[in-house]
């Protein structure tokens, strides 16, 4: 047993649902007690989704605890197959059935007999994997299911597409800026003359995973989600994957060069394709991305040697570390990840770009580490944003867990060339106000207490507040206290009352006109 | 004439969305400032309060997850030993006056004997340990807010009449709480239950004070050490519809007398409640009708907005029946009111004002659906095309995108809606999205205005 307040990665079933809910024709049936379908809140609220989340809970109640839930799960899975007509229904066990030691595999088998739609079980162990690992596995399980099915029916897409194409693998819901990243990647691929064969999971339909082998490469933008599916596709049909995240100028170029290599190697002779992406990289770096120029510009000189702490999930933390260190000259005093399962690889990738490493999923430990490091900026998750707020250090959010403000309606990719601009902005923004504070505090500031504490209007003095009413107003939440105070005073003045008692406060609240 | 008519309800499959009871318990203990509730459960249990209270979690919340790991569920480590290791940690970090162990479905399934362990732990750690169960299999949303005061009720000091106080230490050897001094007011002690925010809690109290009925205390109180004393001769009255277990505990275990009064929600509810409580203490209530009329006068700008509009309430907490009254008063037609559960006995008093409202407005009582099925409700909503849907956060954006104005039902559980003073807040809450629609849909600006 361990004591925790806040966790970076959620439980396994959330990962499964993130993959399932990205497709419009997939429906997940959770096997969970009442209230565990809070994913249905997590999803449409931050992402402001217009559609009902395709997740239904098969409720585990007292009766289920007594006699097992097989019939109920099978019934509900079948019912959803009828009502929603999804391509696959994904029965999703939560921690409750694994504690109950039930056999989800068996339920899935039985449901696949009675259901009109395919049934692909999300086979993840709640005690052993977290949200990200589960998402990774679920994606692989869906891909495997459909490739096997196609193989059995002899419809597995074998011939390569005539023009070079790529599959984008691993864009789930609830990833910060994921939809923008997907759009940016599609643009990047189009720019270099590569078509998009398949995006999985795709926002529209689950796609046709059996067509995956037709592409020449599988870019996996986030290592955490998609890698297992890409490795499976590589083993099954020999489609190479590219796991370099195109984040930052250098790694974007890196990623494009790897695609060039794949396309070059696989380009059939009759197409006579010249695959030289170097001019594209050069043009984008100099004219589309402003990040390279910005970091040369004199303004960015002030960033040199500033110390920053970076924390997040492995992909974004590593990419951010490399970008800030290599491209902006910021000194990364600590870089870390809470993805303990991928820590080794992640540390290897930031080798030489940071002073020290932190691998922890304990937010208290991370907070203490930041307090000790005393950086001038923090890049992290929402949790680190709060640490920054407490310690009064400028902070930016680069990784989940995130809040609604990290799902901006405006176009804000992290990846590709537009992504480099979007990364550079908050780095400057979080650092400039920091200097501003410093410059203000040094000469004593211009808004000193002597100025701010001046009474706003001398008329307030004619009103007396008795202690009881003062304690009553302390009960009012801070954010409305001023408003209620103003209303009370207005009421008192209008009625010629000079002594504000609790009774007066209540009367003021009751009075509709004030 | 027929006997007392209760609110009739239908029942569906119970496939509906609601919040976890655990997060409600956590919220209710937020009220008791010197408590610290560890929630004993898996990652799922921790992840949901983290997302449900959202930003609240970042402000150093007064709860934590005691998260069983794989080994714990196989009963290899001993539960008592494990928790014994954690409790001193909490005591040292937070120094709470009480630790409340919140059980979840995990503890329920592995049959952790929380109630049995607590007294032993209590003597070992030296801090009172209260056990509140709030597991998903047995509880729905606000029921969590019911188990908390119910569990705490056992810890309140015994109420003593003046002559009994001499033998007081002998009567209650366990942790002594403040004995209540002899009351100046004429009425016997009245304890109100429900964890309302301090600002809202003062409303029902001050309403009674106006009729010179003194409320002796609240359950739960702002501090654990300020809990009111209970016993025979103490009158109790709930301020929320989901406090039936608390009411039962207070009656059966603490021998209190329950006043079955309507809830102080809406001007009519507040009036009917005060009318019910005062006669218990032999007091003739004064000026209630006038106050109710004044309140209604004060919010008379709302009926114009909502008259003739229709409302569909999907239901995720039992706090949906009473707040449906003010909109009905304003001339709204309510198609359906969904609720997770309904304690007909506890809510019996509620049917009178509801019936009265429907009668006054000449409309039938709304259909009440217990344990609703969200999928079926959405089909019904599609048929009836209401002007406003009151739904949980899970089902809010999609109807909005389909042209149905939506209001979050959860807001009624934390918005101030109790008492006369907040009478304006209910129609304000309900009509907010209707008012927004009156502003116009920015999506239509491109079209020519006719």
Automatic annotation (TrEMBL), chain A:
Residues 70-101, 455-476 are annotated as: Disordered. Its EC number is 1.3.7.7. Its cofactor is [4Fe-4S] cluster. Keywords: 4Fe-4S, ATP-binding, Chlorophyll biosynthesis, Chloroplast, Iron, Iron-sulfur, Metal-binding, Nucleotide-binding, Oxidoreductase, Photosynthesis, Plastid. InterPro entries: ChlB/BchB/BchZ, LI-POR_suB-like_C, Nase/OxRdtase_comp1, P-CP_red_C, Protochl_reductB, Protochlorophyllide_Rdtase. It catalyses: chlorophyllide a + oxidized 2[4Fe-4S]-[ferredoxin] + 2 ADP + 2 phosphate = protochlorophyllide a + reduced 2[4Fe-4S]-[ferredoxin] + 2 ATP + 2 H2O. It is an enzyme of class 1 (oxidoreductase). SUPFAM superfamilies: Helical backbone' metal receptor (SSF53807). Residues 12-430 form the Nitrogenase/oxidoreductase component domain. GO terms for biological process: light-independent chlorophyll biosynthetic process; photosynthesis, dark reaction. It comes from the Eukaryota. Residues 70-87 have a biased composition (Basic and acidic residues). Residues 467-509 form the Light-independent protochlorophyllide reductase subunit B-like C-terminal domain. GO terms for molecular function: 4 iron, 4 sulfur cluster binding; ATP binding; metal ion binding; oxidoreductase activity, acting on iron-sulfur proteins as donors. Pathway: Porphyrin-containing compound metabolism; chlorophyll biosynthesis (light-independent). Protochlorophyllide reductase is composed of three subunits; ChlL, ChlN and ChlB. Forms a heterotetramer of two ChlB and two ChlN subunits. Component of the dark-operative protochlorophyllide reductase (DPOR) that uses Mg-ATP and reduced ferredoxin to reduce ring D of protochlorophyllide (Pchlide) to form chlorophyllide a (Chlide). This reaction is light-independent. The NB-protein (ChlN-ChlB) is the catalytic component of the complex. Belongs to the ChlB/BchB/BchZ family. This is Light-independent protochlorophyllide reductase subunit B. It comes from Selaginella indica.
From TrEMBL, chain B:
The keyword tRNA-binding does not apply. This is Protochlorophyllide reductase ChlN subunit. Keywords: 4Fe-4S, ATP-binding, Chlorophyll biosynthesis, Chloroplast, Iron, Iron-sulfur, Metal-binding, Nucleotide-binding, Oxidoreductase, Photosynthesis, Plastid. Pfam families: Oxidored_nitro. Residues 1-81 are annotated as: Disordered. One of its GO terms (biological process) is light-independent chlorophyll biosynthetic process. The keyword 4Fe-4S applies. It comes from the Eukaryota. Residues 83-426 form the Nitrogenase/oxidoreductase component domain. One of its GO terms (molecular function) is oxidoreductase activity, acting on iron-sulfur proteins as donors. PANTHER family: LIGHT-INDEPENDENT PROTOCHLOROPHYLLIDE REDUCTASE SUBUNIT N.
């Amino acid at each position: 047993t361990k004591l925790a307040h806040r966790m970076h990665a959620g439980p396994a079933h959330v990962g499964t649902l993130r993959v399932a809910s990205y497709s419009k024709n997939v429906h997940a049936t959770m096997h969970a007690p009442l209230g565990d379908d809070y994913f249905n809140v997590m999803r449409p609220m931050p992402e402001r989704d217009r559609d009902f989340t395709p997740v239904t809970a098969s409720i585990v109640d007292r009766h289920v605890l007594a006699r097992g839930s097989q019939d109920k799960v099978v019934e509900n899975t079948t019912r959803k197959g009828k009502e929603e007509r999804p391509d696959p229904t994904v029965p999703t066990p939560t921690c409750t059935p694994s504690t109950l030691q039930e056999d989800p595999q068996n339920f899935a088998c039985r449901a696949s007999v009675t259901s009109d739609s395919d049934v692909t079980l999300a086979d993840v162990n709640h005690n052993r994997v977290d949200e990200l690992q589960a998402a990774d596995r679920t994606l692989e399980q869906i891909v495997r299911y459909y490739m096997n099915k196609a193989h059995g029916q002899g419809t597995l897409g074998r011939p390569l597409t005539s023009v070079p194409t790529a599959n984008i693998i691993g864009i789930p819901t609830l990833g910060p800026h994921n939809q923008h990243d997907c759009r940016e990647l599609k643009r990047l691929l189009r720019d270099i003359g590569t078509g998009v064969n398949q995006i999985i999971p795709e926002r529209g339909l689950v796609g046709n995973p059996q067509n995956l082998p037709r592409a020449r490469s599988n870019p996996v933008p986030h290592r955490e989600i998609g890698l297992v599916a890409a490795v499976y596709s590589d083993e099954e049909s020999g489609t190479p994957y590219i796991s370099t995240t195109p984040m930052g100028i250098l790694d974007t170029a890196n990623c494009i060069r790897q695609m060039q290599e794949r396309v070059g190697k696989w380009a059939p002779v009759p197409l006579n394709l010249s695959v030289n992406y170097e001019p594209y990289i050069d043009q984008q770096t100099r004219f589309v991305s402003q990040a390279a120029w910005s970091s040369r510009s004199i303004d960015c000189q002030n960033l040199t040697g500033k110390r920053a702490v970076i924390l997040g999930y492995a992909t974004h933390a590593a990419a951010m570390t490399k970008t800030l260190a290599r491209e902006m000259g910021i000194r990364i005093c600590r870089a870390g990840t809470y993805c303990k399962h991928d820590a080794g690889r992640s540390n290897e990738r930031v080798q030489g770009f940071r002073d020290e490493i932190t691998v922890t999923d304990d937010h208290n430990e991370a907070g203490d580490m930041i307090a000790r490091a005393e950086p001038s900026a923090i890049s992290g998750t929402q949790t680190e944003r709060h640490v920054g707020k407490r310690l009064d250090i400028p902070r930016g959010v680069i990784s989940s867990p995130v809040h609604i403000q990290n799902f901006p309606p405006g176009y804000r990719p992290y990846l590709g060339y537009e992504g480099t601009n979007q990364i550079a902005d908050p780095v400057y923004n979080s650092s400039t106000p920091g200097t501003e504070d410093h410059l203000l505090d040094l000469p004593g500031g211009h808004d000193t207490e002597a100025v701010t504490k001046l009474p706003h209007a001398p008329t307030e003095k004619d009103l007396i507040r008795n202690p009881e009413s003062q304690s009553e107003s302390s009960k009012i939440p801070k954010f409305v206290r001023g408003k209620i105070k103003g209303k009370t005073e207005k009421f008192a003045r209008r009625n010629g009352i000079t002594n504000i008692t609790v009774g007066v406060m209540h009367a003021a609240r009751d009075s509709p006109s004030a | 004439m027929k006997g007392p008519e209760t609110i009739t309800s239908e029942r569906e499959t119970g496939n509906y969305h609601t919040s976890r009871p655990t997060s409600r318990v956590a919220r209710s203990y937020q009220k008791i400032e010197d408590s610290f509730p560890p929630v004993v459960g898996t990652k799922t249990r921790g992840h949901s309060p983290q997302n449900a209270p959202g930003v609240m979690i970042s402000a150093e919340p007064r709860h934590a997850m005691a998260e069983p790991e794989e080994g714990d569920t196989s009963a290899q480590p001993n539960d008592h030993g494990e928790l014994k290791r954690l409790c001193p940690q909490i005591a040292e970090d937070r120094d709470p006056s009480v630790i409340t162990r919140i059980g979840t479905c995990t503890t329920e399934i592995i049959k952790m004997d929380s109630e049995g362990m607590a007294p032993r732990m209590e003597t070992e750690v030296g801090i009172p340990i209260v056990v509140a169960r709030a597991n998903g299999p047995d509880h729905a949303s606000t029921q969590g807010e019911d188990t908390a005061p119910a569990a705490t009720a056992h810890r309140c000091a015994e109420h003593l009449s003046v002559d009994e106080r001499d033998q007081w230490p002998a009567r209650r050897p366990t942790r002594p709480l403040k004995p209540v001094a002899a009351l100046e007011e004429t009425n016997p002690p009245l304890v109100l239950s429900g964890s309302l925010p301090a600002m809202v809690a003062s409303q029902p109290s001050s309403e009674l004070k106006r009729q010179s009925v003194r409320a002796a205390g609240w359950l739960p109180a702002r501090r654990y050490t300020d809990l009111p004393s209970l016993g025979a001769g103490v009158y109790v009255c709930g301020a929320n519809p989901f406090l039936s277990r608390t009411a039962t505990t207070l009656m059966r275990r603490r021998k209190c007398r329950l006043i079955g009064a309507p809830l102080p929600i809406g001007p009519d509810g507040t009036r009917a409640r005060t009318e019910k409580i005062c006669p218990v203490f032999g007091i003739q209530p004064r000026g209630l009708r006038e106050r109710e009329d004044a309140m209604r006068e004060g919010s008379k700008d709302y009926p114009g907005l909502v008259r003739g509009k229709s409302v569909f309430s999907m239901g995720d907490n039992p706090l949906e029946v009473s707040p449906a009254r003010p909109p009905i008063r304003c001339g709204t037609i309510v198609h359906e009111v969904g609720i997770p559960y309904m304690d007909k006995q506890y809510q019996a008093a509620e049917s009178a004002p509801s019936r009265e409202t429907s009668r006054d407005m000449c409309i039938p009582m709304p259909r009440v659906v217990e344990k609703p099925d969200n999928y079926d409700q959405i089909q019904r909503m599609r048929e009836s095309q209401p002007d406003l849907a009151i739904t949980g956060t899970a089902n809010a954006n999609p109807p909005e995108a389909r042209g149905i104005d939506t209001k979050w039902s959860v807001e009624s559980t934390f918005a101030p809606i109790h008492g006369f003073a907040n009478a304006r807040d209910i129609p304000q809450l309900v009509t907010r999205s209707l008012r927004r629609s009156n502003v116009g849909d920015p999506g239509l600006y491109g079209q020519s205005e006719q």
